[in-house]
Amino acid sequence: MQINRRDFLKSSGSLVVGVSASGALQSLIAGEALAESVSYPNPSPELLDTWISVARDGQVTAFFGKVDMGLGLETAIAQIVAEELDMPVERVNIVAGDTLLTANQGGASASSGIRAGAIPLRNAAAEARRVLASAGAERLGVPFEAVATEKGEVFVKAEPARRIGYASIVDGKPLGTKVTWNKEMGTPLNVTGAGKPKAVADYKVVGQSVARRDIPGKMLGTTDYLTNVRLPGMLHARLLRPAVAAAVPVSYDAASIASIPGARVVHKKDMLAVVAEREWDAVRAARLLKVQWTEPAMNWPGSEGIHDHIRSAPAVASNGESAFAGKRVYDETPTYRALAGAAKVMTADYEAPFQSHARIGPSVGVADVRDGSAVIYVDSQKPHFVRMGIAKLLGLPQDKVRVIWKTGAGSYGRSDADEAPYEAAVLSQELGRPVRVQWMRHEGTGWDPKAPAAVISMKAGLDAAGAVGAWYFRAKGFSGWDVKFAADSPEQTLVGMQLGMAKTDMHNFDVPTETYQFPNTVRFWQTVAPLQVQASPMRCAHMRAPQEMQSRFAQECFVDEVAIATGRDPLAFRLASIKEPREMAVLKAVTEKAGWSAADHSPRKAKGDILFGRGLALYNGYGSYAALVVEVEVNRKTGRVWARKVTVAQDSGLIINPGSLKTVMEGNVVQGLSRAMVEEVAFNQSTVTSVDWNTYPILDIKDVPETVETIIMHRPDMASGGAGEPTLVSMAAAVGNAIHNATGVRLRRYPFTAARVKAALEQHSA
């Protein structure tokens, strides 16, 4: 049997998903009959059937080239498709992220699931409605203008009883229509048809709080997670990591694992792995294998010295290559000139740490590479790009590689999710059998790509009246593109580098985009060389809201510092300094809800050892606008900071599912607080020492806010913005401002651990 999507469409007429699906298609979706499927062509974006299919039982399937990383995206896409097709949302199924069944829409990133990824699905569904209505009108013997659609049926407007269902119209055949494709792959991909999407005023499903369809399976344990994938004849593998980061294996003693049934070693260049028939045997073999490693001389600055290292290290790039905006140009001269002539100059450095993605379950990958083809199971954010990279790694054409996405343990950017699938692919090709690679906890925080550490320098020049006449922002840190945001080539992965592929040299950081209108403003970034070039546990990559928490921590805290130094309320100062009305609107909404007063920038009340304060911060990005007010309690004896209440307002334009958006905002609050309060990668001169939940803690349940108030500012007149990041970005800034409000002490380094806060308070009172 040789089956692929194109052949199935030709033979059966329509791609059918659901309870009525044929066994052949079920095999396609499940990834069964792996060795027999040898061709995995790219679905053509120009075919309407690539996007929408109607089954004989009336169920509709939408094929979505992005993935839902736990934010309720599939439910929202189902709502959009149901809306345009005039169907009940429960009759719309979503197939996501499978490279055989979906077009490459770029995967999950930049909060683009709705603001970009939904657009071609909306347009395709609108075109499908037009095609179905036209065919229905013909079957009913009336002109096209005489019919309308509802509940998956076409009916005659003048005689509503005369109607025909979509299933009867299609009768198992393809829709057979082409759409216009913009010839772009990835996130910009779009298609349009003659059918026009509905006006917002006509929406019945979009804008409603439909229950998320992924929650029951996660609660009841029936979700098909990547960790559950098992293939016939599959081996289990573990990779061995050195105690010194730059060390490579010289030799090993196979006899040291001879007592473990079926355990064997795979050593290829600098990659060293053990495999076994049983997973526990692979774990034991990795622990017992005696390995001789090289002994490189390492001299990293360590966690406590990293920011001084950044200050003194030469910049290797500055506002350099950007795949999105080209080369950005800035001129510091006017700012320096204005600073030199200012009556007063305020300066401050803010420090951001390395942070780990710290997925609850580390990387997993399953690969079956045989007979010149490969099927790979991943929970990566970008399965289509993983397909590109693994094809290169294996020396196979892309149409011989299929990547199947499964729900994973969480993902917040370019995490370790991309690593184990590459390792499994290498081992499967070497051994000629399916291989499952499971990372261990110490690898998940020790060897995943990191959010880059940085020092952000701020300066403001004030005139004699306290007005801002110059504004300076410089971010200097490690590159956010040390490894690329998409694992589309093997040198972007740990195993690719271990196999001798040179990592690319790319540079990126971030500058704020809020619309503060200070005269003589300059905002720029510089990057420094990585601590270790090849196969480094300190390699950096995009983490949720890439480099934005770092940049907004500095900007939004410094805005407060300047406002307070000049005797102004931080809210009033912001409102007087920005120009974007939507920024003003979220600031006003959040402060009104939180009961902000002009006196809040003065130190607030205390009760015994507990000091109380509140802080404000703003964010503009991904087509959305967010503002936060955080109310904290600071224990002056222990240094513990509790963000007791968080109020957030978000304007993301047209809202698809308000209930789901609320939970996304709340999730952002919790992860934002975790990064602001406790998360920091510790390392010494030669290796990462954050290797478990004790050495890399995340927010404890006792530290979760007592109250999270969410304000959703529905703007149906505006395009949908991204929701997966905005209410997280400025959390560290809001907390930092609240701590200052409570204590009078300005902390310019996050996370705000109890030890760090206690030391700052003791120094302040000394």
List the helices and strands and how they pair.
Layout: H1 5-12, H2 23-30, E1 52-54, E2 60-64, H3 73-85, E3 92-96, H4 112-115, H5 118-140, E4 147-150, E5 153-156, E6 159-165, H6 166-170, E7 180-181, E8 191-192, H7 215-220, E9 235-239, E10 249-253, E11 264-268, E12 271-276, H8 279-288, E13 290-293, H9 306-312, E14 315-318, H10 333-340, E15 344-352, E16 355-356, E17 364-370, E18 373-378, H11 383-394, E19 401-405, H12 419-431, E20 435-438, H13 441-446, E21 450-451, E22 454-462, E23 468-478, H14 494-498, E24 521-528, H15 548-565, H16 570-577, H17 581-594, E25 606-607, E26 610-621, E27 624-635, E28 641-651, H18 658-677, E29 707-712, H19 726-729, H20 731-743, H21 754-765
Parallel strand pairs: 2-3, 9-20, 18-19, 23-24, 28-29
Antiparallel strand pairs: 1-2, 4-5, 5-6, 7-8, 9-12, 10-13, 11-12, 14-24, 15-22, 16-21, 17-18, 17-20, 22-23, 25-26, 26-27, 27-28
